[in-house]
Amino acid sequence: MKRSVVVTALLLLSIAAGAQEKIWAGTACKAKQVTLTEFLPEEGTPKAAIIVCPGGSYHWLDTKAEGTAVAQWLASEGYAAYVLRYRVAGKFEFVAKYRSVLRGNRHPDMICDLQRAIQLVRERYDGPVGVMGFSAGGHLVMTSAEFYTTNFLSKYNLHPEVSLRPDFVAPIYPVVTLSDERYVHRRSRLGLLGEGSSRKKELKDSLSMEKHVHEGVPPVFLLNCTDDPVVDYHNSVLLDSALRQHHIPHIYVQFETGGHGFGADTSRMDAHTATWQKMFTEWLHTMSF
Length: 289
Known about the structure:
- The protein is of the alpha/beta class and 289 residues long.
- Helices cover 33% and strands 16% of the residues.
- It has helices at residues 2-14, 64-76, 91-96, 109-124, 136-146, 186-193, 201-206, 234-245, 276-286, and strands at 17-22, 35-39, 49-53, 80-85, 129-134, 168-172, 220-225, 250-255.
- An 8-stranded mixed sheet has the order 1-2-4-3-5-6-7-8, with helices on both faces.
- Helix 4 (109-124) packs across helix 5.
- It is globular.
């Protein structure tokens, strides 16, 4: 057992990340901090490409447990993984609330970054392209799955010839609702929408993922824990209900324990959450990915 753990650790360490690509270079968007980092399998053609969106309440990004560690694991399973460092409000904004005066980063910046990443990966990879996100990143990937017919990139005069629809989506302990005050994660709503967003009903409804599921949404792997102390588990219950109502192929994995923020960091997992990665790859295999 110990030997297999060591071998796995060495394999993950051997998977080197590619250079961080500034995805907006050469465009009208000046967001130089947005990057996409590639992780490829050591051998063979990737089974699929997966863009990974870390969480962090739309204020910061957990690029280790929910970024690099996830990408290394996916690459070890034969997938091409791309960690997206998308725009967020920032830690300073969380303290200073400067966006009450200045715009800062807010919607639709985040979905613009993800659509741009999908565009670039599709243009370079001839195969299925999926998206995986954690917490607020889970909200972001569901946004891409539900609003793919809206070209948010047009504000930068970009009109992709490739599809912006992901082939599959994996929201892990996601933020879902921005309007149901019983369950809303207020910090994420604030990070995405800005100051005063709690009073803007139309805006909150427009980005509540449970309200915009439609028949074209791609297959979904949804997972969370009922003891989640950060994002109320009913967020995923709302999404699961909407997916079932619209007959979207999906699986909803609900653990009794495991909390929040474990990503692919085994030191943060319990006996339940330690099984989620295998469950995800098995789900991909059922769709021949």
